[in-house]
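User: I'm putting together notes for a lab meeting next week and I want to include a structural view of one of the chains we've been expressing. I don't have a solved structure, so I'd like a prediction I can at least talk through. The sequence is below, exactly as it appears in our construct file.
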Amino acid sequence: MLDRHEPRCHRAETRPTFPPREMPPRKSSRQTSKETTNEDVQSLQQPHKEADQWICFINNTALEIDPNDDTKTVFCKLRHPKTERGAMFLFANGDKDVFEVAVFAESCRSWLIDNTVQQDGRLHVTTPIDSLFLLLPYLKKAKEGGMFMTLDQIVCDSDYPECSRLVATSGTSELNQIADVKGSDDLQVYRYSEEKVLSWLQSKTERMADKLSERGICVSGAQSSTYVRTKRAMTASHDDYIRYAYGMVCDYIPSDVASQLREHMKIPEVVEKKENEPPNKKAKLGDITPTEDYSQEKSDTKSAKAGKLTAGQKKLSKVDKSGMKSLASFFSPKAKS
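Assistant: Thanks for the context. Below is the predicted structure for the 337-residue chain, given as structure tokens.
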């Protein structure tokens, strides 16, 4: 589903940049600390205008410019096929190739470029994406009318007008894999086909699972997100790779289509247990019976303790106690006559 080309670091600019902010000159150590502190405070209080630019790794194929073509590489926002929110994509080579722009952001990060500081420390990475994933939601929405429509009529979004670029992508030549097609080469009309979509997604999932298995990617637990080859990956079954590849494909399709694909491929749903979850049934105390007789052990311990007497107790046991009253008898109430 994703091609891997050697990326090239590129600073993308969306509008004319301001002059770069120069690093302050290093002050001599002979200056007094009071003068240094005042200058530092003044430099921090002055507003700085940073250029509207960011660091991006772009595939080499996206930077290949045809001198005979006036079209340029364009960043634009489209509706994401799963979340339906705006997401950034890159169109290149006359809108034939589409790249997804993934953003990796961490707090308290910046870039040092020559003698300037890029305050925006985010990293943008472009990866090729099949344009059929972006066209699928529009085809599915147009199916509600039940009519065959041209691609220009189907791909229409007032919130994201740049979606019209999808009509010129190379993926449109394979629309017969997810839609019913009628007409001639000059004029073709399309209609969403659920059967073809599920078959196409199943093929994508199986090929993705085979690639993960060939590369020995660990698909169990949190280690799967790092894509590191481990010995544990050797123990993963084919179903494990299918389940993981299914999750990757579901990141680019609507939720209802993902549910249909799960039923189509008969992938069991994994229910994760929550931490500190109470047991389903409480154990009945009446059913618990001891397997050993502990009362016999207690009586044995009492007899063992009673058998051991001190020297004073031994002498007292030899005294004749006949006719003697116990000490408790003096405190007991007298019997009524």
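A couple of points you could mention at the meeting. The beta strands are 7-13, 53-59, 74-79, 86-92, 97-104, 111-113, 116-118, 123-128, 179-183, 188-192. Residues 1-6, 13-24, 26-49 have pLDDT under 50 and may be disordered.

User: Perfect, that's what I needed.
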